[in-house]
Design goal:
Blueprint (H helix, E strand, L loop, with lengths): L4 E9 L2 E10 L7 E5 L10 H7 L4 E5 L18 H15 L4 E6 L1 H10 L6 E7 L7 H11 L4 E2 L2 H11 L8 H8 L3 E4 L2 E4 L7 H4 L3 H17 L4 E6 L7 H7 L7 E5 L11 H12 L2
Helix pairs in contact: 2-3, 3-8
Amino acid sequence: MSEPLLKKVQALSPCGLHRVAYWEWGQADNPRVLVCVHGLSRQGRDFDVIARRLSDRFRVICPDVVGRGESEWLGDPRNYQLPQYVSDMVTLLARLGPAQVDWLGTSMGGLIGLALAAMPSSPIRRLILNDVGPTIEFVALQRIASYLGRAPQFENCQQGADYLRGISQGFGPHTDEQWLALSRAMFKPDGDRCRLHYDPRIGQGLAGLTPELAKAGEAQLWAAYDAVRCPTLLLRGGESDLLTRATAEQMTQRGPRAELHEFPGVGHAPTLVHEEQIRVVEQFLARG
């Protein structure tokens, strides 16, 4: 399949109903389902390269988390939190119908998968966490918060792609063609200009975050990680400022005892468009 199908499912928040969009690759009747969930300010088309590669073996589902991409925005920005995202994904999984799924989550998408995998009777069969763990470095959260709430406009996609490249150095080296492909779905028309695809209010939770609050959340995430029982692969950018090597090593020693693979020359987070990155994911899923 050269292009995915765009579908939507209706989900519930404390302030009403909203539509969650998802991109579907492969055959809809394939019982082998891989769910790929993006990072905080990204969207489901981030996974085009790896989804296209795996769509002959999996039904690959790439949602736009609420407030991003083709999904609707929430009426109350206070609901842009992990519990809402998990609830939406449970609704999506109910729509999809498989008894089990494999989960690939980048950053925020990994935390959503971690929360689901920790639940009793979880449908997650194999879990891939891309550059995220229970301990998230506060300095990295401050870096992300510094640009997340902005709502810049651009004359065209190329200008926007150049802006994104400037704030995404951690993604590692990419050709101009690769970067433009990663950037196209990041913009929406806005009159004769374009803007970023997401609700700028998604960053409000980070704006009020303190080191003390971050520590409290960390304890909850470690408890969830220790409850995970499925085989887990942990991907880490060798220069990541969000997931330290010490945290990654700790994750190999407790909970599901994740298998760790690092990519040198990459920070937060590997984009999974390079052959060597895709191959690691492919081999882990094949063992299942």
